[in-house]
Each structure stands twice: as structure tokens, then as C-alpha cells.
Design brief:
25% strand, 3-stranded antiparallel sheet, 6-stranded antiparallel sheet, alpha+beta, 7 helices, globular
Length: 176
């Protein structure tokens, strides 16, 4: 927007007056039927565990991304080290796939569902603090832990996890 404003300021007053006198014409342009721009992100399906991990699954529930929740990141404090899982490792729900160490404490990262690790966030080895900045971001610079491949058992495990509303209620109670 700044470049548009600069262009308008640089235009001669005579040009602006000619623009104002030009009649508006309708074009045949039609907006796309799909939402091309939105202020809200389009999310995959995300659920949470009682151990404060989250998992996003794609629409066909064959692949996902794992990380720790914002609540866990805040409770841990400044993260100083992240132990990442091995690529290719197959795990069951609840298996430890890594660890997070902070100035306050250390905690295991558990697999929320049965899955196979296909990629890890190597950025966290150099910048473990990304977990504190953006713990629930699964983009390139985010705090996600691992990308996974999901089978039938993983989909069954996923259905048993908490939705965001259930997770907020859980973290708001004293049972966690």
C-alpha cells in the first residue's frame, strides 16, 4: 500500500483530475468462487493429547505434523535444547519420540498417535527457541517437531484425542 500511496503523491494534479473525470466502466471480471484470500488460516485437522502434544492431519488422514502445545511451551519456559526423533522410525501412540529441555525442566515428547516419522524440523537443533516463539506453527520456520505418515491405527488413535475446545477445558482444570 505504501507504494500505491507514493505513486498517487507523485502524480501530477492534472493527471488526478483527468482520472476523476473518467467515467467508470464495468468489466466482465468475476470473483473466483473459491476463497482466494482470508484473514483466517485454512487448517488441517488438529487435536491434542493430555501430555500437551498436538497433531495436524491432512484431509485424507494419511500424513500429519506433530508439535507441542502453546500451553506446554509457556509452562516449560525458555527452551534451550530439543532432541528430535529419527527419520523413518515407526512409533505407537504414547512412545517417546524426542525431548525438550528448558531452563526450568525437561520433558519427553510423546507420539500422539501410531505413525512413521518422515521428516524432522532440523531448524530446532540450531534454534530451539522457535518452540517458544511459534509452538503450534507447522510452517518452515515454526516450532513443529516432526512430519509423519499415518496408517489405520493412527487414524483410530487420532479420533480419541481432544479437540481444541476440550484441550482448553483440560488445561483450565487442575487435573493436568
Amino acid at each position: 500500500m505504501a507504494s500505491i500511496a507514493r505513486c498517487l503523491r507523485a502524480a501530477r494534479p492534472s493527471t488526478l483530475s483527468r482520472l476523476a473525470q473518467t467515467p467508470l466502466t464495468r468489466s466482465n471480471w468475476q470473483p473466483a468462487s473459491l476463497r482466494a484470500f482470508s484473514a483466517s488460516p485454512i487448517r488441517d485437522i488438529r487435536k491434542y493429547t493430555k501430555d500437551h502434544e498436538w497433531i495436524d492431519l491432512n484431509a485424507d488422514k494419511t500424513a500429519g505434523v506433530i508439535g507441542i502445545s502453546e500451553y506446554a511451551a509457556e509452562e516449560l519456559g525458555d527452551v534451550v535444547y530439543v532432541e528430535l526423533p529419527e527419520e523413518g522410525k515407526e512409533v505407537n501412540a504414547g512412545d517417546a519420540i524426542g525431548a525438550v529441555e528448558s531452563v526450568k525442566s525437561a520433558a519427553d515428547i510423546n507420539a500422539p498417535i501410531a505413525c512413521k516419522v518422515t521428516a524432522i524440523n532440523l531448524t530446532l537443533e540450531e534454534k530451539p527457541g522457535n518452540i517458544n516463539k511459534v509452538p503450534e506453527d507447522d510452517s518452515h520456520g515454526g516450532g513443529w517437531i516432526a512430519k509423519v505418515q499415518v496408517g489405520e491405527q493412527g487414524v483410530k488413535d487420532f479420533e480419541a484425542l481432544m479437540t481444541l475446545e476440550e484441550y482448553k477445558a483440560f488445561t483450565g482444570s487442575e487435573d493436568h
